[in-house]
Design brief:
Layout: E1 2-5, E2 16-21, E3 37-44, E4 50-58, E5 67-74, E6 77-83, E7 85-92, E8 103-107, E9 110-115, H1 121-131, E10 140-145
Parallel strand pairs: 6-8
Antiparallel strand pairs: 1-5, 2-7, 3-4, 5-6, 7-10, 8-9
């Protein structure tokens, strides 16, 4: 999963949450802003018919410096690469993680977390009160500060 954002309000994507920018850091060499040109736009005319209009614009507007997180998950290990990120959390689900085995987090090539996790009742209640989501159960989290 890749997530790029330029405002901390958008620092949550699936199991990555509360990501915080640190745009004072240098941009990583691999950090390329994904964008593309839009040359045609569909819109409705006065008769509510679809017409094609020629335009010249970018798909995304990043007026501020952005941060980027690239993640992978397999066999109880989260591998995370960051650029201009100060901190983030990883939400833990028993559907993804074997809670009887250690959960590992590799950040920018270094192992930063390697522990067995348990259900965190307080966290689960906070998540329920925050979003009332019955379809996704987060049972714990790992907070990571990027040094």
């Amino acid at each position: 999963m890749e997530w790029e954002f330029d405002d901390d309000a958008y620092g949550t994507m699936d199991w990555i949450s509360n990501a915080k920018l640190d745009t004072a850091k240098a941009k990583a060499s691999w950090h390329k802003t994904m964008n593309f040109d839009i040359v045609k736009w569909l819109k409705l005319d006065k008769k509510d018919s679809v017409v094609t209009v020629d335009v010249a614009q970018k798909a995304f507007d990043f007026p501020r410096a952005s941060g980027k997180i690239v993640t992978d998950y397999e066999a109880n290990q989260f591998t995370v690469t960051t650029s201009r990120i100060g901190a983030f959390s990883i939400a833990i689900s028993p559907e993804m993680v074997d809670l009887n085995a250690p959960v590992r987090v590799v950040l920018n090539g270094a192992l930063v977390f390697d522990k067995v996790l348990t259900y965190d009742k307080q966290f689960m209640l906070e998540q329920w009160h925050a979003n009332r989501d019955r379809s996704q159960l987060w049972v714990n989290y790992i907070h990571v500060n990027v040094e």
